[in-house]
Amino acid sequence: MVGDACYHCGRDSYRSPSVVVDAVATRNTVRGKEVLLIRRGHEPCKDMLAFPGGFVEYGEDPEDAVKRELLEETGIIGSNPISIAVHGEPTRDPRKHVIALFYSVEVDPDSVPTAGDDASEAHWVPLDQVTEEEIAGDHILIINMLRE
Questions:
Q1: What pLDDT is attached to residue 117?
Q2: Which of 26, 50, 106, 133 is 20 to 30 A from 85, comparing alpha carbons?
Q3: Ramachandran angles phi, psi of 40, nearest 5°
Q4: Active-site residue flag, 72
Q5: Each residue of 80-109: pLDDT tens digit?
Q6: How far is the C-alpha of 94 from the C-alpha of 36, rounded, in Å?
Q7: How do residues 16-31 score in pLDDT, each as one tens digit?
């Protein structure tokens, strides 16, 4: 590729999927395992629970993106992201083909989340209380993985 165009054909309008990252942070309490979730403030899945996350910016490393999105949506600093799942079903997001990279992220378990960016709420939620009806899209697959 030369610049933004293919050096073979000159095209610069490849149909490529977008990439999002989602931060999976958990903590253990006397009530059991809790997971950090946001309530989506916008469509798609407005008002549903989801992991804090968002689109990777052009030129951004996904590991930096997941820490940035966690901070923007919850006010919590994350570290040591470890890839735990990739979801790439082409119809998983109603907007377009979006590949999601889920990362386990370390956080201070005493952190108090504060909603920001496109999250209307941010909370620690008991893992055993999260239901498929209230969680956005395929995020339930990660919840179920955490329950195993």
A1: 79
A2: 133
A3: -65, 130
A4: no
A5: 999 999 999 988 888 889 999 999 999 999
A6: 24
A7: 889 999 999 999 999 8
Q: Cα 136 from chain centroid?
A: 11
The sheet carrying 18-24 orders its strands as 53-55, 18-24, 98-106, 79-87
Please state, in angstroms and as integers, the Cα–Cα distance from residue 8 to each residue in 2, 16, 17, following that order: 9, 18, 21
Residues in the chain: 148
- Active-site annotation holder among 60, 63, 121, 134: 121
- Confidence (pLDDT) at 42: 87
Dist CA 62 CA 103 (whole Å): 9
Kindly state the helix (H) or strand (E) to which residue 84 belongs, with its residue range.
strand 79-87
Supply the pTM of this predicted model: 0.89
The β-bridge relationship of strands 18-24 and 98-106 is parallel
